[in-house]
Amino acid sequence: MAAILGMGNPLLDISANADKAMFEKYGLEPGGIILAEEKHMPVYAEMQAKPDVKYIAGGATQNSIRVAQWMLQEAGATAYMGCVGKDANAQKLRDACVADGVNAQYMEDPTTPTGLCACLIMDKERSLCTSLAAANNYRADHVRQPANWAIVEKAKIIYSAGFFITVSPEAIEAVSTHTRQSGATYCLNLSAPFIVQVPPFRACLQKTLPDVDYLFGNETEARAYAEACGWETDNVEFIATRLSLVPMNEKAGKTRKRHVVITQGCEPTVVALNGMVTLYPIIKLDSSKIVDTNGAGDAFVGGFLAALSKGKDTKACCEAGNHSASIVIQHSGCTYPAKPEYSW
């Protein structure tokens, strides 16, 4: 059974280069992440018509799980759940997961198309425009099905990006509270400023936090959290420290401490534990080697979780995360070579 289970919003990434005019046409910003409105819907066909278009099994959580599987190179090390439609795009996702070695247990909604994410790349920056479609329809009764719950019970690590909060708080609650008894490690990602800025989403995050062993995010999301909570600081180390001190529920009868892991692009990664901060250096690449920053954060988490599943310490987990992120940003989209060339 899988050591790492991801639960999230499966999307078929449609990735291609775009010019400034196309960004302006759809009101998109480099580095932005938005949910598509009616005015954005033509972007998907426009991207699919591009000669350099690539189709990638995407969605933040699925990216991280695929990277973890790639880093581990062990059959059946990872599993993934989310909702897709009953269409050709869902089959593309299934095929990609089979090729990657990920055990994808999708819930299928025949009435709604599979979710899409347009990944517009300009000058090595990307803008993501997401139509959740079927991904928005995941229901907690899917994870409670005996075969799927068996995966939950066997998993050592369960991970969701914060985007899943917008879809199924019930599924998040079911698995995160289960880890109190099982002792499994529960991990969550802040994922985007809007997750912490929208009150119902922030409420779910704060309700789940006592069960979260590892909280991931980047400096923008950390600052958005502080602002939303009225902390009146933009000091990332202080914010990480404060998040690390939110009390945790006991797990399997043991008191645990939360690791808060905040990436900062080309600056060192901040890790707070029990109110203490440690900075871990990143792998700096020459800008000429960077193809696309899309998926860098997801790749970092994937490498980190792979190392965590092997029982590695925080330093080794950050090193693995840095390695996977440094490889992925040298490729278009969240893709990578056949082997990670990483020594455990």
TrEMBL record:
Pathway the protein contributes to: Purine metabolism; AMP biosynthesis via salvage pathway; AMP from adenosine: step 1/1
Segments forming domain Carbohydrate kinase PfkB:
34-337
Pfam families xref list = PfkB (PF00294)
Q: What is its EC number?
A: 2.7.1.20
Query: What are the names of the required cofactors?
Result: Mg(2+)
Quickly give the catalysed reaction: adenosine + ATP = AMP + ADP + H(+)
- List all membrane-crossing ranges: none
Q: Broadest EC class? A: transferase
Q: Which UniProt keywords apply?
A: ATP-binding, Kinase, Magnesium, Nucleotide-binding, Purine salvage, Transferase
Under PANTHER family, the record lists: ADENOSINE KINASE (PTHR45769:SF3)
- What is the purpose of this protein? ATP dependent phosphorylation of adenosine and other related nucleoside analogs to monophosphate derivatives.
* Family to which this protein belongs: Belongs to the carbohydrate kinase PfkB family.
Q: Per its record, how is this protein called by name?
A: Adenosine kinase
**What organism is this sequence from?**
Prorocentrum cordatum
